[in-house]
Amino acid sequence: MRFMFIIKAAGAGSPTPSLMAAMQAMAEREVKAGRMISDGGLMPRATGAEVRIRKGKLTVTDGPFAETKEVIGGYAVFELPDMAAAIASARDFMSLHQTHMPGWEGICEVRQVAGSQVEQIRLGAL
Fold first, then answer.
1. Tens digit of each residue's pLDDT (9 = 90 or more) over 59-94
2. Are 89 and 108 in contact (CB under 8 A)?
3. Which of 5, 14, 34, 54 is the most interior residue, by most CB within 10 Å?
4. What is the SS3 assignment for 94?
């Protein structure tokens, strides 16, 4: 089963060097174990764009955007046996923040990936 971890936090603070090192060590361990498939941080919202449909009209808005309470700062995709394993992994990841960035507050949303059209196309299933 594939799971996506979506990291949300208030504010746009950058990880401390010690947190970055701890996350790198965790990523290396998870990749070598065959569990981590992909990950990445996201550039600030101000450098992005929103493509939206509202009242039947499609619009594009360049950043910066109005302040939000939480910003998605990064993601990771894992291959894990079940939701319990995904939650355990997310707890390990979030505990790095507790240790290396005391006072940091955020959320790691854990979502099972429903399926991949890209994989089906590559395998010739679509």
1. 998 887 776 777 888 999 999 999 999 999 999 999
2. no
3. 5
4. helix
Which residue type occupies 27? A
Rg (CA), the chain: 17
- Exposed / middle / buried, residue 5 (Cβ in 10 Å: 0-12, 13-18, 19+): buried
Q: Is the link from the previous residue into 64 a cis peptide, with omega within 30 of 0?
A: yes
- Delineate the domains of the chain, giving CATH numbers in brackets: 2-122 (3.30.70.1060)
In sequence order, what are the beta bridge partners of 86? none
For the chain, the straight-line distance linking the first and the last C-alpha, in angstroms and rounded, comes to 20
Torsion of CA 81, 83, 85, 91, to 10 degrees: 150
